[in-house]
Design brief:
Order of helices and strands: H
Helix content: over 70%
């Protein structure tokens, strides 16, 4: 390529084409890297959010299980209190009848 010498005044069409291809490749590489980097950051952010949602769902399930267990215990306690109340009423009626 005579265009690379010091005494070159004008570029040929072939040299101009090569310079355009090289410049286009460099610009395309920079743009491609920038897009890749942005997508990688977005993907990492989405993964972090999805992991956080998964943790929240697990905590939510644990809380629901504890509430269900509490409800079962509360129900059995309420049933026992109702039974006790029924027995006390029965004893009071027997005492009043005597």
């Amino acid at each position: 390529m005579t265009e690379l010498s010091k005494d070159c005044v004008d570029m040929s069409n072939a040299a101009s084409t090569y310079v355009g291809i090289i410049a286009g490749a460099i610009i395309g590489g920079v743009v491609s890297w920038w897009i890749y980097d942005r997508q990688k950051k977005t993907s990492n952010s989405q993964d972090h959010i999805l992991n956080r949602i998964k943790e929240l769902e697990e905590n939510h399930d644990a809380i629901l299980k504890k509430l269900a267990d509490f409800d079962d215990k509360h129900e059995s306690t309420l049933d026992a209190m109702t039974e006790l109340h029924r027995k006390i009423d029965s004893l009071i009626r027997q005492d009043d009848a005597s």
